[in-house]
Model the fold of this input.
Amino acid sequence: MKKLAAGNWKMNGTRAAVAEVQALLAAHPAPACEMLLCPPATLLAEMAGLAAGSALAVGGQDCHANAAGAHTGDISAAMLADAGASHVILGHSERRADHGETDALVLAKARAAIAAGLVAVVCLGETEAQRDAGETLAVIAAQLDGSVPKDATAGQLVIAYEPVWAIGTGRTPTIAQIAEVHSFLRARLSAHIGAEAANTRLLYGGSVKPSNAAEIFAVPHVDGALVGGASLKAVDFGAIVAALAAA
Ligand code: 13P
Done:
C-alpha cells in the first residue's frame, strides 16, 4: 500500500495560491508516497493542469449525490472528474456541522463519487464532548458503518479519522489515542467491506504539522494524513510529505 499525504485547503486560496503547488512540485517531484491536494472548486481545473503528469493528484472537497440536475450551487462527482479531480473529500466534520450532512447523505455521495471514478475520502471523528463521554469508538463505528459503501474496494476508498476537537486547534490526540482509533478502524472496516480493508488507506487528520508528523506516521495503521492549515504552504506540506515518505 502506498501511503497518502493529502491536503484540504478548505475555503482558502485564490489563483495566486497555485504558486504553492509549483513550489511543492519543484521540491518533491517524485516522493515515495502519494500526494493529494484538494483546493476550492474554483482552483481545481487550474491546479489539475499544473499537476498533470506529476506525482500530485487533485481532488474536490465535496460533491452532490446526484449526477446532474436542479441543485443550485452544487457540483457533481462527474464535474469534479471533468475538472481533473481524481479524489473527493466527503463527510468532513465541517460539512456535517455547517450543512447538516448525515451518514446517509455521505454514503449517497460516496456511491456517486465512486460511480464517477473518483476515490472517496470519507471523514469521520468524534467531538470533544463525545470523547469525554467515552463514546469515541461507538461514534466512529456508527459513522463508518453509515457512510462507507459496503462494496467499496481499497482503490476506491480512503478513510480519514479527524477528531473534531483537533481540527484547527493545534491540539492532537495522544499517540496511544490515535493508535487505539486506527486499529479499531482497521478491524471495523474489515467487518464492513471485507478483505479490501487491509489495503485501504487510513489517514489521521487534525493539527498535523511538520513538527508532529513523524511520530504520528509511526503509529500502526496510520497510512498518511489529511492536513488542513499546514497544506496551504508548500514548505510545510512538503515537510509532511517528506516525513511520510521516510516513515
Ligand atoms: P488542520 O490540519 O488545520 O487541523 O485541519 C484538519 C482538517 O480538517 C483536514 O481536513
